[in-house]
Amino acid sequence: MLLLLDQAIVEAVETLIQYKFKDPALLWEALQTKSAAGTEPDGNKRLAVVGDSVLSLCLAEDWYRGTTSRSHWNTSFQSGVGSNANLDQRGRALGLERFIIGGKGGKSVADTVEAILGATYLDTGSNLAKCKEVMDALDLLPREQRLERELDIEGVVMIDPADILPHRPRKRSSPHSWEDAERRKRQTQECL
After folding, report:
1. Whole-prediction pTM
2. SS3 call for 101
3. Helix, strand or coil, per DSSP, at residue 83
4. What is the per-residue pLDDT across 94-120, written as a single tens digit (0 to 9) for each?
5. At 97, is the secondary structure helix, strand, or coil?
6. How is residue 120 annotated by DSSP?
7. Active site includes 114?
8. Per-residue pLDDT band at 174 (split at 50, 70, 90)
9. 133 CB-near residues (< 8 Å, 6+ apart)
């Protein structure tokens, strides 16, 4: 059984993550740690497991559609965006620990960030685009995805030059790289 829902806390967190829940009880559950009195035996752990998978899936989908190498995926996700240290840092940067019910030590902030993503996924009916919007609000998108989302009304990309400089050419991973495929495609079209 969950503690009685505190609407003020739910609304404050909804403002932080820029998403309004259809079922606020999901968000409330995401804020309950295992040590909170009157919570489910596992607290927000079940939602955190879902959220961890959602985070991984969203990042993997964007990585698949992008042009970065597999080694960048391993480095970016495992030691970067998806690490407990990063999730904890992002949650604390937003002041999320003020809204966590129960213990705030250990991995509780990181688990709560994951639980919020899990709750969002379930609340939206598995809508990954909405989950990415919440990830963006939590500053969990890698730089490449953040840049894609920083379009203004007229379609002009607003970027910080430090985000793109210095430019380092990518190493080709194989003779059949994406660039080679694009070059062959252009050559074929020119012949027609």
Report:
1. 0.70
2. strand
3. coil
4. 999 999 988 767 789 999 999 999 999
5. helix
6. H
7. yes
8. very low
9. 18, 19
Residue of 29, 62, 88, 114 marked catalytic? 114
Residue 7 has pLDDT above 60, yes or no: yes
Rounded (10°) CA dihedral 168, 171, 177, 178: -10
SS3 track for 9-46: HHHHHHHHHCCCCCCHHHHHHHCECCCCCCCCCCCCHH
Task: State the catalytic residue, choosing from 52, 62, 111, 123.
Answer: 52
Helix (DSSP H) and strand (DSSP E) numbers for the chain: 9, 0
At residue 152, the pLDDT reads 39
Whether cis (ω within 30° of 0) applies to the bond prior to 166 is yes
Evaluated on CA atoms 106, 108, 113, 119, the torsion sign reads positive
Show the beta-strand stretches assigned E in 36-150.
none
Q: Tokens representing 61?
A: 């989908």
154 catalytic residue (yes or no): no
Half-sphere exposure of 19 (CA within 13 A, CB side): 26
